Amino acid sequence: MNTNHVRKSRMDRITLKNRILLLFAAVSLIPFLLSCYLSYRTINSILTNKLQSGIQSNLKQVMLSLENTRMKPS
Question: Can you tell me the distance from the alpha carbon of 34 to that of 27, in angstroms, rounded to the nearest whole number?
Answer without folding.
Answer: 11
